[in-house]
Amino acid sequence: MSNLNEAARLIKKAGKILVLTGAGMSTESGLKDFRSKDGLYSNRFRGNSPETILSAGFFRRDTRTFYDYVGEKLDVTGIEPNKGHRILAAWEDTMDLSIITQNIDGLHQKAGSKKVLEIHGTLASTTCTRCGEKKNLREVLDHGYDHACGGVFKPDVVLYDEAVDKIDLAFEMAEKADLLIILGTSLYVYPVASIPDVYGISSKKAIIVNRDQTRYSMHANALEFNESISATLEKLDHLINE
């Protein structure tokens, strides 16, 4: 049996499926990732590294440069979900499937997925640091980040040097899953990179689709495909429904 057929068999028989997605899920929609050779982290912005700019400390001391960077490099206006996003949304209609995403672009929800845990938050909305009022990011980019109460609007994302406050829920979802599907992440960033171990990959099967090899590429319980996510999901979808 080919690895694709085995992966399709695992998906069909699984009771509770957990999908973990990273930047590679969104690059197929035209967004740049962070850590690849040509990714966002390869270029400084006004003398600062992106990792520095996207930290809570930098946000507090230079909010203007922070928002200039977000508006120029991270704005997802006009970006549409790709075929992979849409296939996952369709699977949710017929399977017990949930998604944990490291992405902050909202493309899973735009494609129609409803059971999505945005582990690093969302760039779609902002919250005033003083009074808690909400505004969408586009409004803040267009009209300014200062609030009349004296606070500033901060994107609802987890910045560097902030805690990932939803990680306990993510680990709980991982423990309960019968099958883990990992899409577009090399599993470098902790604590999210711990999810396969929390899931129990030592005793349960996992499917991985990522452009570059992960540390699980030779793992006995991992079926890894170093190919396009959309193309691979399309092949699996065909096998599942034939």
UniProtKB/TrEMBL annotation:
One Pfam family recorded for the sequence: SIR2
Protein species of origin: Youngiibacter multivorans
Cross-referenced NCBIfam families: PRK00481.1-1 (NF001752)
Assigned EC number: 2.3.1.286
UniProt xrefs under CDD domains: SIR2-fam (cd01407)
Keywords attached to this entry: Hydrolase, Metal-binding, NAD, Transferase, Zinc
SUPFAM superfamilies in alphabetical order: DHS-like NAD/FAD-binding domain
Protein name: protein acetyllysine N-acetyltransferase
InterPro entries reported for this sequence: DHS-like_NAD/FAD-binding_dom, NAD-dep_sirtuin_deacylases, Sirtuin, Sirtuin_cat_small_dom_sf, Ssirtuin_cat_dom
Annotated ranges, domain Deacetylase sirtuin-type: 1-242
Active-site residues from the entry: 120
